[in-house]
Amino acid sequence: MKSTQLIRLALKQSRSDLLTFEWRALLLALFLATSLSGFLTLLGNQLEKGLSRQSATMLGADLSLSDSQPIDEALHEEASKLGLLYTNVTQFSTMVSTAEQMLLSSVRAVEAPYPLRGELITEPPQPTQIPVAGTAWAEQQLLERMGIAVGETITLGYSQFKITAAVISSPDRGTGFRSFSPQLLINREDLAATRVIQPGSRIGYRTLFSGTEQQIKGFHAQLRQSLTPQQRLWSVYADQPMASGAMENASGFLRMTSLFGILLCGLLITLSLRRYSSAQYRRSALLQSLGMRPRQILHLYLLKLLLGWTLAALTGIIAGLLLLQLTGSLLQTLLPAGLPAPDYRLIATGPLLSLALLLAIGFSPLLQISRIPVMGLLRRDQLSHQGLSWPARLIILALTGTVIALYLGSAINALAAILLSVATILLAGLCASLLLPPAGRLLARRFRLGRLLSYRIRQQRQWHRVQLGIMCLLLTLLSSLLLSQTELVNRWRAQLPVNTPNQFVINIQPWELEPLNQFLSDSDIETTLYPMIRGRVMLINGQPPERVLDQNQLENNALKRELNLSWLANAPKHNELVAGVWWPAETQENLISIEQDLAEDLGLTLGDKIGFEVGGATFDATISNIRKVEWRSFRPNFYVILSPPVLQNYPQTYITSFRLTDKQAGLSRELLKQFPSLTLIDVSQWIDQASQLIERLIQASTLILGLTLFAGLVLVQLLVYQELEQRRRENALLQILGSTPAQTRQLDILEFALLGFASGIMAALLTEIITGLVSYRLLELPVILHPWIWLMLPLTGMLLFTLAALISHRPSGYRQLQQS
Amino acid sequence: MTTPEPLAVLIATALSKSFPDQSGGLDIFNDISIHARAGESIAIIGPSGAGKSTLLSILAGLDEPSKGTVELLGKPLSGLDEQSRAELRARHISFVFQSFQLLPELTALDNVQLALEIQGHPNPEKQASYWLDRVGLKQRHHHTPARLSGGEQQRVAIARAFATEPSLLFADEPTGNLDEKTGREIVDQLFELNQQLNTTLILITHDAELAQRCQRRLYLHDGKLQEQ
Ligand SMILES: Nc1ncnc2c1ncn2[C@@H]1O[C@H](COP(=O)(O)OP(=O)(O)OP(=O)(O)O)[C@@H](O)[C@H]1O
Ligand SMILES: [Mg+2]
């Protein structure tokens, strides 16, 4: 037989294969594996590019140096000398207001030239690089949320700005939480007049540099030598991860979510191929009796698989790209800078993964088809399926594992994930199957064929377990995600005590203390103002920390950045002393009240001495008591509070928090009107932004879960179909023995409903465990049970299985008994 | 034995059957009538594809004739709903097949018991056990079909068929899958029970010798049924 003939035969057979359920299931599995893995690889690449490795267009420069202090002029001079171009940016969070609205936003004060790399795109396009003095450019999101348009005026501190353009996209949006707030661009010349920058304000300063690669690399190396702990340096030529752990975790989380889907696809491929190949034995024997050699048959079937794969891969790629578009628009609003274009070549991961899965799993059934003896035509028993040998199974498992390890980029993760999924499926299946016999016995008494139900439950143990395990895991994934999406976030918000402050005011200057206190008490707001001074820990018991602490302790954040220090005569009411005593109000000693966890982490106790540096000056103080702090209370809290003599003479600002009810909303506008330089932070907006990030991620994973669920349903359908096909003969016999067709159908449906019920119960249990763990360990919330999932999940399970059974059900009759 | 005149167990009148087909309809047989009395043994013979099995399924109420009526134990099948027809089968009709048709997951005892349970027998286990002993499978109650020979499986099927004490037993090529000797033993048993229980036996066969042992032979050929 010539190869062209072989191809023609393969094409012809493929067309008729398309009509069979198992071939469709196979193609679907390949399609899903392709689209899922292609999509996730692209998304991962996109996130990685966008967040871990800054491109020049994202940085707006080749090199960016940021600091919490204004950057030394000397650096600028040096950069000039080296022939580098530079520009300064000041960024801070503040409330921007109109007569009606206030919004927490991130303000960037810039000077020309800006940006040094990349492009600021505005609508309408502007003739200048940056806003002209007195005007501002606002991001679309800011305009939308404040309900204003270009041309209107906003208030920022003591100044008014006319919005002259909307920012469509912009480099250099800053890092960390700041970058999630909607942004406003103003001219640096206007900054002083707003009077929002006061000693002690939290400001991000940065200088952007650009030049040739050599210049930048040299300057980078030089800067790195003298970097202070507050300074951060980003270069387009250095491969350092940015502070985007959350996003990296997100990408990993999405990949893990998809892993289950891919495992399901693998299982689906295995089962559909098995079914397909056993249906092909007779045909293979026939082809051999007509003179085709086993080798040619193998080629024929390989060709058919490749044809199927091509179809699935092409559609899978398209679906993967569509998915990417969809998540892109989901995450777009969250990351207004947008995600960079991914490396589209990576889409090849999808088809390659599905091809690898197909060949790893599919080769041995094909080999079996091609080796079927011609005798099979004469004697049926020769056609029966020969189980795979154990080495073959192990090889398939190992190959599949390798494919997945390559996809996940980590063998350990792959192994752990596979083992975990398989173990969960088996364990959940096993546990759920324990529910079947008692439930079956209960039903057996009510239905005419009840006893047969018990027989089936006993006889189909193995299959039932697999089905139960898969269904159970599907339902668990679905419900846990839905619960975490709605309930956990809401509960986290709701558990804040009713009188939790929702407004933070910082940057209160000493001279504003009196009038502000007056304003607040006039408005019936009871609150305390706390002084706040930034300082660094320099010495511990007279020694530099490196000498007395171990490596782990040195990693503590409190040592790596400036701490907010406070001084108080009286103990803060909302902190509880756990050791020592509070100092007398008029003490003259240098004393410390330290937060419990920090003291524990650094191994400090009463009587230990800490040396601080504040604004260039240094001093020592002794720990006199230890406090327990409830960080989630949304009140001003400090790791370190000092006795009055130590700090009262340093320049300082004050901080406070209070609660405004919805009715008092106007008050914050009034406050800002009277004290324009205060920074007021609406915590509820802040929480909104944080929970938005979580919600979006969960939405993106729900998307993946949706596909996974689809794969799972097809798998369940395949299993149900397979079982019902076997049941047709049995049902025919039962009818002969005196049951009605309605009764046999009832029996089938009862069996599957029972499976759905058991898997639902088990899924409810697993969901409770998972959400319990998440709320207890992660969110530190008390564990609560969800009675309704115990109802909903079994019902959903029953519904899904019953539907699958109804769809696959075919009537049986006398004819089923005439053939063996 | 209470009635002097043997009762008519089965009366089929003017049966026709055709299957819908692209070219209008595939006529299997036309205007066939059968009259079977209690205790009678009847062989239906004919070439493959003549419609023997189709006829059987119509006689048993598993399929509807295109035309004609079937009356079982004095009740016209067309007047019965699905439920009553199923009950009629459970009580009065049994089958024996060429390929035994035991449920592979169940033991011999369970297979026989199942039929009795569907029938609603008051004491299915005892009855099943008694019949397995009676067909000579005393030692094999708890074996599954996979562990029984073909002949033994067919004996289980016969035990299942007679345990419900049917008035009418249909056998569709009961010896088709057995060697000559075993086949003869099975047939002996069938006839013996047919005599002892006065069960009407209607069997389909290609085996001329077996057909000869029946009291009547009906030849289905070209859509017609002829008494030979
Ligand atoms: N449900 C059906 N739909 C269409 N055609 C059918 C159906 N059932 C049977 N036939 C056709 O009716 C004809 C008679 O079939 P049947 O099985 O009754 O023959 P048979 O006499 O039992 O043959 P054999 O001796 O080979 O068992 C065959 O041509 C068969 O293909
Ligand atoms: Mg037949």
Going across the major beta sheet of chain B, what is the strand order? 6-7-8-3-9-10
CATH superfamily membership of the domain at 40-47 and 81-227 in chain B: P-loop containing nucleotide triphosphate hydrolases
Name the average pLDDT of chain A. 81
- Give the beta-strand count of chain B: 10
CATH architecture label name of the domain at 40-47 and 81-227 in chain B: 3-Layer(aba) Sandwich
The two chains with the largest interface, and their residue counts, are: A-B, 28 and 31 residues
Approximately how much helix is present in the residues of chain A? 40-55%
Overall mean confidence score, pLDDT of chain B: 89
**Helical segment count of chain A:** 25
Taking the alpha carbons of the first and last residues of chain A, their distance comes to: 35 Å
Classify the beta-strand content of chain B into a percent band.
25-35%
Structural domain tally of chain A: 4
- The secondary-structure element order of chain B is EEEHEEHEHHHEHEHEE
Q: What does the radius of gyration of chain B come to? A: 18 Å
Low-confidence stretches of chain A: 240-246
What is the approximate shape of chain A? elongated
Strand content of chain A: 15-25%
Q: What class would the helix/strand composition of chain A place it in?
A: alpha+beta
Name of the level-1 CATH class of the domain at 40-47 and 81-227 in chain B? Alpha Beta
Oligomer: heterodimer
Number of strands of chain A: 20
What can you see in these coordinates?
The complex is a heterodimer of chains A (820) and B (228). Chain A is α+β, with helices and mostly antiparallel strands. Chain A has four domains: 1-57 and 245-409, no CATH class; 63-235, no CATH class; 417-498 and 690-820, no CATH class; 526-658, no CATH class. Chain A is 55% helix and 16% strand. Chain A contains 25 helices and 20 strands. In chain A, the strands form two sheets. In chain A, strands 1, 2, 3, 4, 5, 6, 7, 8, 9 and 10 form a ten-stranded mixed β-sheet that branches. Chain A has a six-stranded mixed beta barrel with strand order 12-13-18-15-17-16. Chain A is elongated. Residues 240-246 of chain A have low confidence and may be disordered. With 228 residues, chain B is of the alpha/beta class. In chain B, 35% of the residues lie in helices and 29% in strands. Chain B has helices at residues 52-59, 82-92, 108-119, 124-134, 150-163, 180-197, 208-212; strands at 8-21, 24-37, 41-45, 67-72, 75-76, 93-97, 168-172, 200-204, 216-221, 224-227. Classes of the chains: A alpha+beta (820), B alpha/beta (228). The structure holds adenosine-5'-triphosphate and magnesium ion. Adenosine-5'-triphosphate (ATP) binds next to β2 and α1 of chain B. Adenosine-5'-triphosphate (ATP) is lined by residues 19, 26, 28, 48-54 of chain B.
